[in-house]
Amino acid sequence: MGEKKMIKKERKSPSKKKVEPVAVDPLISRRSWSDYKSMPISCPSFSSNFEKHYTIEKSISGSGGITKSWISSRCTHPTCPQLAETNIYPKYIHIRYWEHVHRVFRDLDNIHLRMSAPLDRPKVVITGISSPAFAFYRTGIHYGDCVWRTRDCRIIDPYSGNNSFMEFTNVIGFQRTYYAISRQGSLAVIELVDSGKYEITALGSRRVVPNCRVSKQFREYLLEYEGEIYVVFLLSRVSIEVVDNVEVFRLDKSRLLLEKVDRLVGDAMFFLQDNLCLGISASLLGCSKGSDCVYFTHDKAGGAWFVFDMKSCCISTTPGPEIDL
């Protein structure tokens, strides 16, 4: 049983890589209709069931998966094997941001930009670097009023082999509290403090990584379901193109610890893909079967979907759950 770690700040020169404050137009922060066709509805069994789009849209809670690889051979800290992110966005991906009042496009090569789920208010963007480490967006009273406030991170990642500052690669918000995971698996809580600024207020006492260390690579997802935060790992032993196992954890928010989950609560179904993830009730979706399962696809799957049955711990291909209610 661990306690929350006290945060210790160290003197260290700022990160050399700088990036301008990033913003997202509030009018387009919700994904387009075509984007929603590529979420669980891209399952063959959902392809013609457009009335479920709104139900699924309201359940989106995570912004997708992060792929990480163990690189222990390059680790200078033998008791703390290092992780590398292996799916940095390519340079042709554009991030929309505000420059004065006008929207422009700009390429940010090798900078990891990830926004909290579409329905989060306020929104947070993490950068994957330490300066700035994250930014919060607030809308004003009048149209066009918007404020982006950026924050640097000057907290050394406890799992870094070279005493680097934390660099966040995954984030989720719940009731105006944000939970961010660093590249090395540190968990940080970001909250609004008395000064009116968002700050890192606590760190988890254990590393956010899979239990199974046999796998060389894994995909990491954050999602919320019925008030609980979950972390799901898709594990690959040899090739990242093949998922060999799935692990599901629930975050104990009071102790900032992950607890292994053997069964999903109620008739829950989880859906995971590269650009978003969600948990939803099978009955709400209109399915009499398929609960207690994790459905997933990824960029190496060639459009195929798979299902991990929590009861049998087996993975199989699937057209998706059948809507029959």
From TrEMBL:
InterPro entries hit by this protein: KIB1-4_b-propeller
Disordered: annotated span: 1-21
Name of the protein in question: KIB1-4 beta-propeller domain-containing protein
The species this protein was found in: Castilleja foliolosa
Pfam families recorded: Beta-prop_KIB1-4
Occurrences of domain KIB1-4 beta-propeller (ranges): 117-309
Domain of life assignment: Eukaryota
Biased composition (Basic residues): 1-16
